[in-house]
Amino acid sequence: MVRILFGLLWAIDAWLKWLPSFIDGQTMAHELNPQAVSTPVVHSWVQLWHDVAGMNPGMFAMGTAVIETLLAVALILGILSKLTFIVTAAWSFGIWTAPEHMHLPWGTPGMTDLGPSIGYIFAALALFYAAAGATWSVDAVIRPHLGRFAPLAGSVPA
Question: What is the pTM of this model?
Fold first, then answer.
């Protein structure tokens, strides 16, 4: 049930990515603003993604919306759960380190947390270790047919 609720959370996030202000690439300059970070390593990382997104902001935004939609669907339906949990954690790490700037600088007045995406990382990894793809999932049906790719699906229910 937690996996499905987590997928619904991702679905809401994906829906927001399909809104015109994001999908047209209008928010990229604000979200991937390297000037907002003074820590050299993080600044360079954000600058890299700012440059990549700046090549074609609309395409970058579309790719982001598609990936988050696919993650939401895979989480809700339980498709290739182990792979989905790892990709979700990696994607969340990318969001936390680039558009969220790791919530730096931590010395900003009123700053009281590390940003929401770090919680998504831990949630995805917890679901991975809890074998959350084992029940109420498409994995239960397709796992026997995946052959050598079966380990990417959720564990077999006990």
Answer: 0.84
